[in-house]
Amino acid sequence: MAEADTLAPEARDFIRDIVRDDLAAGRHKSIVTRFPPEPNGYLHIGHAKSICLNFGIAQEFGGRCHLRFDDTNPVKEEQEYIDAIERDVRWLGFDWGRHLYHASDYFEQLYDWAEHLIRTGKAYVDDQSQEEMRARRGTLTEPGRNSPFRDRSVEENLDLFRRMRAGEFPNGARVLRAKIDMASGNINLRDPVLYRILHASHPRTGDAWCIYPSYDFAHGQSDAIEHITHSLCTLEFEDHRPLYDWFLDNLPVPSRPRQIEFARLNLTYTILSKRVLTQLVRDGHVDGWDDPRMPTLAGLRRRGVPPAALRNFVRMIGLAKANSTVDVGMFEHAIRDVLNAQAVRRMAVLRPLKVTIENYPEGETEELDALNHPDNPASGTRRIRFGRELFIERDDFMENPPKKFFRLAPGREVRLRYGYFITCREVVKDAAGAVVELRCTYDPATRGGNAPDDRKVKATLHWVAAANAVKAEVRLYNPLFTRPDPDAANFAADLNPDSLEVLRGCRLEPALAQAEPGIAVQFERQGYFCRDTSAPDGHLVFNRTVGLRDTWAKVAASG
Ligand code: ATP
Ligand code: MG
């Protein structure tokens, strides 16, 4: 089956318009973008927006996209995250080819450029403590004040900076700052820090360095080194753009990238902040970074979300210059859209109720044909077992049904999907009065689901045969947070205590024992489910990817 998204028309938005113009005007021969994650956590659905944008533009305009690890803070960065990020970008369907880079690859060049700024009188070593620097930074309405160390000579600055590199000073003793303007209306230009002392081992450079460049000093220059043409980032970097450009103006860089900002993705009932996601994992609120409730790509994959659904979703929400929050229902809509077309259909009973067909011969069974996908005959049929003992869904029976309940009830006839019509004759209860079994009869003339006399039934139920059904655990997921706008500063208060519901003793048709993890199937009438990867051998566990009900369509239709 063709990937749903390859047929979609090419997206148009303000960034693609800029890129198109730049190509038309001959400002670039080809387009180079990059996706620059900091390896301090797993990628989430917000990153998917950035990945689809950067890799998508490169594909659409025949350019290339680099994967660059923005690894300037060794204290928070780990190899586990690097591996996870590479896996997740590939899973989303993108390939950086040989263009894998690290900001740490440029540490020597960045250091040289820092000395260049010192030699041209545009950087100085500051001995103030963090608190002193903060006190002199000023506010949005008041200018800052110059550091007492601002007018050191070039020689003294060079000497101190080299000794910082040589490891002569402890953490925090000194920093290197750009000498720009302490009175600037833009606080990012008030002599920003370029280098700080940090005696910490780096995942790639080991103990070679004890000073590390700031994000701002590393980012734009890394772009320039790689000849990035368009450096796409989220809106919070808009105020950093003058600094980004200042470095390019004041350093002998080999190219001149252009930074363009776009709105970050926010989703209702979701927090997309690596700090919070890290805490959810560390404090054990979830079962790791790939917990299916997490908005991480690893979690979504384990949950059964197909990568095409993420790509379609990103296209659907478009690209804007103002921040907003997207209804998580829209994401679910994108998932259903892909799975409705792709997922094979199976029958699974999540909360089983035993049914005995009294007039079905004891010890016998038979096989019936079931469609794998009703809209797609090419996906074929399978054989399912029918016999005297079956399971149906507990919710599909009511002893005293209200008016609008059309499913099974005493004396009533319903259809079993791909099977027969059955009629409920007797309700068996345990000592406590709970229904434990239904005694029914079937009409052998209705094999396959239709009556020769054309009589109608009002409901079709899913079911499985007790003879060969397999047992499984099914995990139902609800939003991790109870509020549409959970508070990132105090997220624990908004955690949903019912985000995970575990059903044990579910009965599935035997074909599901062969289900592949990572590929969702539809449990008829229930939703989409995906086999879990973490279950021990011989133990079947399924995760609910998403329910069938499309609440978003209703919202959109009434809006
Ligand atoms: P956090 O703020 O959660 O720590 P981050 O933005 O610092 O995340 P990075 O690893 O620096 O994480 O992000 C890599 C790229 O992904 C950046 O270009 C960033 O702008 C982009 N990005 C991060 N979050 C989102 C989001 N919610 N929507 C769109 N792009 C995002
Ligand atoms: Mg960042």
Note the topology.
Blueprint: H1 14-24, E1 32-35, H2 45-60, E2 64-69, H3 79-92, E3 100-102, H4 107-119, E4 123-126, H5 130-135, H6 154-165, E5 175-178, E6 193-197, E7 211-213, H7 215-225, E8 230-234, H8 241-250, E9 258-262, E10 265-267, H9 274-282, H10 297-303, H11 307-317, E11 324-326, H12 328-342, E12 345-346, E13 348-349, E14 352-357, E15 365-371, E16 381-387, E17 389-393, E18 413-416, E19 421-429, E20 435-442, E21 460-461, E22 463-465, E23 470-477, E24 500-508, E25 521-523, E26 527-531, E27 541-547, H13 551-558
Parallel strand pairs: 1-2, 2-3, 8-9, 10-11, 12-25, 14-20, 18-21, 23-27
Antiparallel strand pairs: 4-5, 5-6, 6-7, 13-24, 14-17, 15-16, 17-22, 18-19, 19-20, 23-24, 25-26, 26-27
Helix pairs in contact: 2-11, 7-8, 11-12
The chain binds adenosine-5'-triphosphate and magnesium ion.
